[in-house]
Specification:
Helix 6 runs parallel beside helix 10, helix 7 crosses helix 8 and helix 7 packs antiparallel against helix 10. The chain is α+β, with helices and mostly antiparallel strands. Strands 6-5-7-8 form a four-stranded mixed β-sheet. It is built from 14 helices and eight strands. It folds into three domains: about 60 residues, no CATH class; about 160 residues, dinb family like domain (Four Helix Bundle (Hemerythrin (Met), subunit A)), CATH 1.20.120; about 110 residues, Nonspecific Lipid-transfer Protein, Chain A. The chain is elongated, with a radius of gyration of 39 Å. About 45% of the residues lie in helices and about 10% in strands. Keywords: Transcription, Transcription regulation. Pfam families: MDMPI_N, zf-HC2. This is Zf-HC2 domain-containing protein.
């Protein structure tokens, strides 16, 4: 025998049926949805006054739970009639599960409003990180002496992310002081990043990492840069950003895991060397200077480093000044030493006062690169703004025009200002 489900037919009018008069059908019909009931069934009980149209007698009864629950979505969207709204809200005072569901729906609807700003609070990330690090400090924190480099490379990378493809080819000039006069070289934004990556390779090589210039590359920063500009794809494009940033990350990761002794590792620059802690500070300084060059070329706002980092950059320059002055004296570019330096007589000094953020007081030994500046033997004083002093050290400001205030031995002042400018290089 076939049935409705297998393509047969049911019993005809003259065929006997297997179902009795009161038997239920084998396949029940589809069930109606709760909100398709028209009109809804009325249960015994009072009807809320809000459901009774004005001027009509109140009927005794209220909507069942299933119907009211089906109206929660419309209620959250404020799409119910006045009578339905009253019924739903009265029900919510009696039914905790429906009340919870109604609150979730109402909160979800709040996110749909077009006038609501869905952007995250820009300070959210910093607050979350601060809270996390406050509860559990990082296992391998970046050494304090490496944080200026970490910060300045991150700031420059943020600038590079913001500029367009065409701006990578914006021309600019790298400026420095060659000992006697200001000089410059023309390049592009991408060329500057290639220069930074090439010189950072000296630090990478000292740490045993891959040097992008190759194992046999020269140690001189200017020669390395010239070699890169001649051999690299010309003109360099924004693709240089990825290897430069990966190299800076690798340097920070390596010194963070290396331990305390690594800070004194020597980094050779050809005709001079610096301990790693000073070398990374020097690289942070150059990163800021060239980031400022790029920002000026593409009309991008760019601030100086934080006061703490700026102070350490100025301190490094002040510590290098006696050796720079001695080198200029050997080249006949500075006045001779006037006092014999002995154990009990450290010789003359100059009081360098740097004002503004990151500023402080330094006493520069004038007669010996190995001596410490003695405040009691200061023969001159120079006062400069902190950013102006850094621009002088970068070779961006003329030594003749840099000093904001001078007092004392004019020759000593001139020699120190020119020595500061000679710290700059390509």
């Amino acid at each position: 025998m076939t049935g409705p489900l297998d393509g047969g037919h049911g019993p005809g009018p003259d065929e006997p049926s297997e179902q009795g008069p009161g038997a239920a059908p084998r396949i029940p019909g589809p069930r109606a949805a709760g909100d398709d009931l028209s009109p809804p069934p009325v249960l015994p009980g009072p009807v809320p006054s809000g459901l009774v149209p004005s001027g009509e007698p109140a009927a005794v009864g209220r909507m069942p739970h299933g119907v009211l629950k089906s109206l929660l979505g419309a209620w959250a969207l404020a799409a119910c009639s006045a009578e339905e709204t009253t019924a739903v809200e009265e029900h919510l005072t009696e039914c905790a599960p429906c009340a919870d569901e109604a609150l979730r729906l109402r909160d979800a609807v709040g996110l749909l409003h077009a006038d609501r700003d869905l952007d995250l609070d820009p300070l959210l990330r910093s607050r979350v990180l601060e809270n996390c690090l406050g509860r559990r400090p990082a296992r391998i924190p970046v050494p304090a002496w490496a944080t200026p480099y970490d910060a300045e490379t991150a700031r420059l990378d943020a600038l590079l992310r913001d500029i367009g493809d065409s701006e990578w080819h914006t021309p600019l000039r790298l400026r420095w002081f060659d000992g006697q006069e200001a000089v410059s070289r023309k390049t592009t934004v991408a060329g500057v990043i290639g220069h930074l990556m090439s010189v950072d390779g000296l630090v990478a090589s000292a740490l045993g990492l891959q040097d992008p210039a190759g194992e046999d590359a020269p140690r001189s920063p200017s020669v390395r840069t010239d070699q890169y500009w001649r051999s690299a794809h010309f003109p360099p494009t924004r693709r240089i950003r990825a290897p430069w940033r990966e190299q800076s990350h690798a340097l920070v990761r390596t010194v963070s895991f290396a331990g305390r002794g690594v800070s004194e590792l020597s980094v050779s620059y050809g005709d001079f060397a610096l301990p790693l802690r000073d070398s990374l500070l020097d690289r942070a300084f150059e990163c800021w200077v060239h980031a400022d060059d790029i920002a000026n070329a593409v009309s991008y706002p760019y601030d100086p480093p934080s006061a703490t980092h700026l102070y350490h950059m100025i301190d490094l320059a002040a510590r290098l000044l006696p050796a720079a002055l001695a080198a200029r004296r050997r080249a006949g570019l500075a006045g001779p030493a006037r006092h014999l330096v002995t154990a009990g007589s450290p010789g003359r000094s100059l009081h360098l006062e740097v004002e503004g953020a990151g500023g402080g007081h330094w006493y520069i030994a004038l007669d010996s690169p190995a001596a410490l500046g003695d405040p009691a033997r200061a023969v001159a004083q120079v006062a400069l703004d902190s950013v102006e002093f850094c621009q002088l050290v970068a070779g961006h400001v003329s030594p003749v025009e840099a000093a904001a205030g001078q007092d004392g031995d004019r020759e000593a002042i001139r020699d120190v200002l020119f020595a500061a400018a000679s710290l700059s290089r390509l």
